[in-house]
TrEMBL record:
This is Uracil permease. Its main location: membrane. Belongs to the purine-cytosine permease (2.A.39) family. The chain crosses the membrane at residues 70-90, 110-132, 168-189, 196-215, 278-302, 322-344, 374-391, 397-416, 482-505. Keywords: Membrane, Transmembrane, Transmembrane helix. It is found in: Membrane.
Length: 572
């Protein structure tokens, strides 16, 4: 048993106490200089690749089905992702500055042990979404296999109904895509950027071919061209007042679609070569990437409707109907598009779910789990969640997953308000790995964050319950409309409450509101140390790298105690 335990353990610093070994390992410590390989182009490639996926292709069409016109839906998508870009940049900032991942950064606002709750939230949503995205990715495999042999699905064994919403052929495709996800999971975060670069080349190429082909089929005859024009000029089915609220809801849906990346973008930003790399590349690429992909998606669906008269959201169903058993050239073209979308789906699944879950699970059990092991745990647990049931019927589980924005927005509110307002960039990196220090709070839990989080969740909870099937009438219109603004209300309420409580009871490291914004590490961490714990062995020092402000002398934690209130307490 001792041999097995030793084999399962991961690399940790020998200078740490036994208790503190449960707070850190090599993957949780600040990213070493040689691993900060993400440049501005790396983030451009990442967001170009991430924006092209099957969910985004269906985003506008889902809004159209709820009564919007296609151009109203596109406006909502652009506004939603422009707002998302601002939050992504803000969330990237501490990670790119101190080169720390989300599960370590969240300790600043929630405490050394209190951080477990937001981490568990991220783990759960990542595993659930991994399962759903993998099942969707299986549809790409299904189209690719049908291109090789269109008659495969006619086999009695492959047509057998194995479970609700699942046939034998669907299971084969799901397992193949799941197996492919094992490959990128192996590589460390600083190297996975090459996969995103590959996806940023392949995915747009396939999407452009799909778009052009769909447009060509829909305008093959004058009558089809007239039908397409009629589809695109169809008016909204909503009243003027309904259009306003539907626009707001569509904007929030776009933000909710990216809320997981808003939280865990620091997992990638921690590998940034310079903190400037996370600003303009993301500010431009996030809204433009998702806008263009959504535009292609809604036009492809409109072209299919003009050609066949059928309203279809799923691009893989549309692509599957392009297959001509008698034309090898057509089958190859369909196969290539499906291959490109398969790569796109893999990249999105890896970035939004596997990497996030791997980093978060590492913080839960750092003595035994690193990023790679955590990623594989996500992959194998996702296999056990039978996602074909999660996406079944009108009570689709994706509605519940989208509602998780209620919980994640409140976490983002406490995290960002602590960094930008309460501490104004100050940090004590070494204390993020110690049981005692700035972030010990009350038995390792920051009760300020807990109170703010509960307030941020509570304001949206009635509307969230009403959004589930069978509970539509149990709350009033006001609660429903508050929920329609769930990201904004959750974020703003948790932020305001956290700032107010921190003003009355300032935590260690807080500064006056009129203090300048300075990103300073008061532990004196240098980029030359092999481990954060070498500070205690080799002494303190500092250097500036990539624009990061680092103190050059040892500073006692108490010296930065807030002067705003004499009621400041050591632990509260």
């Amino acid at each position: 048993m001792q041999t097995l335990s030793s084999w399962l353990r991961v690399e940790q610093s020998i200078t740490k106490s036994k208790r503190e070994r449960w707070l850190s390992n090599a993957d949780l410590e600040p990213v070493k200089l040689e691993n900060r390989t993400w440049t501005s182009m790396s983030f451009v490639n990442f967001w170009v690749s991430d924006s092209i996926n099957i969910n985004t292709l269906m985003l506008c069409q889902a809004n159209v089905a709820l009564g919007q016109t296609w151009w109203q839906s596109l406006i909502a998508v652009f506004i939603g992702y422009a707002i998302t870009a601002v939050f992504v940049i803000a969330s990237s900032r501490p990670g790119a500055t101190f080169h720390l991942t989300f599960p370590v950064l969240i300790r600043q606002s929630w405490g050394i042990f209190g951080s477990v709750w937001p981490i568990i939230n991220r783990v759960v949503i990542a595993i659930l979404w991994f399962a759903v995205q993998t099942y969707i990715g299986g549809n790409c495999i299904r189209v690719m296999l049908r291109c090789w042999d269109p008659n495969w699905t006619t086999s009695a064994g492959l047509q057998k109904q194995l479970d609700t919403n699942l046939k034998g052929f669907d299971m084969v495709c799901f397992i193949i895509f799941w197996s492919l996800m094992l490959i990128p999971t192996y590589f460390p975060i600083q190297k996975i950027k090459h996969f995103f670069t590959f996806k940023a080349i392949v995915a747009p190429l396939g999407l452009i071919i799909f778009f052009g082909w769909s447009l060509g089929r829909a305008t093959a005859t004058p009558s089809q061209e007239a039908t397409l024009k009629s589809v695109l000029t169809s008016p909204s089915t909503l009243t003027s007042s309904e259009q306003g609220w539907e626009m707001v809801k569509a904007i929030v849906r776009a933000i909710s679609n990216a809320v997981t990346l808003i939280l865990n973008i620091s997992d990638l930003a921690s590998r940034a070569h310079d903190k400037k790399n996370v600003v303009f590349p993301q500010l431009l690429t996030v809204p433009l990437g998702f806008f263009i992909t959504s535009f292609f998606g809604v036009i492809i669906a409109s072209c299919y409707q003009a050609e066949t008269g059928i309203k279809e959201w799923d691009p893989m169903v549309i692509l599957d109907n392009f297959i001509n058993p008698d034309s090898a050239a057509v089958r190859f073209a369909v196969w290539f598009i499906a291959f490109c979308l398969c790569v796109a789906q893999m990249g999105t699944n890896q970035a939004a779910n596997v990497i996030a879950c791997g980093c978060d699970l590492t913080a839960c059990l750092p003595s035994y789990i690193n990023n790679r092991k955590g990623g594989y745990i996500c992959v194998f647990l996702g296999l056990c969640l039978v996602p074909w049931r999660l996406t079944d019927g009108a009570t689709s589980f994706t509605n519940y997953l989208s509602g998780y924005c209620v919980f994640l927005s409140a976490i983002a509110g406490t995290m960002l308000s602590d960094y930008f307002v309460v501490r104004r960039g100050r940090a004590n990196v070494a204390d993020l790995y110690r049981a005692e220090g700035w972030y010990s709070y009350t038995y390792g839990v920051n009760l300020r964050a807990v109170a703010a989080y509960l307030c941020g969740v509570s304001i949206n909870l009635p509307g969230f319950i009403a959004s589930t099937p069978g509970n539509e009438e149990i709350v009033g219109r006001s609660a429903t409309r508050i929920y329609n603004l769930s990201f904004f209300t959750g974020f703003l309420v948790s932020s305001v409450i956290y700032i107010a409580i921190s003003y009355i009871f300032p935590p260690t490291g807080a500064v006056p509101f009129n203090a300048p914004f300075e990103e300073i590490d008061f532990s004196g961490y240098t980029h030359d140390t092999d481990s954060i714990y070498d500070l205690e062995v080799n002494g303190l020092g500092g250097m500036a790298d990539g624009g990061i402000a680092i103190t050059t002398t040892k500073t006692d934690s108490s010296s930065i105690r807030s002067t705003r209130s004499t009621r400041s307490i050591e632990k509260a």
